[in-house]
Amino acid sequence: MALTSDDMARLSRLARLEVNPQTQQQTLDTLNGFFKLVEQMNAVDTDGVEPLAHPTDAMGTVAELRLRDDVVSEPATEQARTANQASAPAVERGLFLVPKVIE
Questions:
Q1: Domain, as residue range, for 19
Q2: For the chain, which has fewer Cβ within 10 Å, the N-terminal or C-terminal residue?
Q3: Into how many domains does the chain fold?
Q4: Over its length of 103 residues, how does the chain's per-residue pLDDT go in tens digits?
Q5: Can you name the residues that pair with 96 across neighbouring β-strands?
Q6: What are phi and psi of 97, to 5 degrees?
């Protein structure tokens, strides 16, 4: 399935996007490349291959995975907190201040 420039014009109109011709051609090439990749994947013979519900299914249980222990690697000191907050745009009494997004 390959998209044409008419398809791109229709899609951009439906999405209410103003797309200049150069960007439209780039997007068209990218989408067609994606569709070509999907066609290649669909061409692979997967008969007899059982689908996985989760990537770890092939390995057995999650307990068999080699995960690192969840341990504290740095002490929680005032000096460490101050260093971590040094690049923050706004801090008050040791807390990060963030803009209000819900009114």
A1: 5-42
A2: C
A3: 1
A4: 789 989 988 988 999 988 888 888 999 999 999 999 999 999 999 998 887 777 666 665 555 666 778 888 888 888 888 898 999 999 999 899 998 888 7
A5: 91
A6: -100, 130
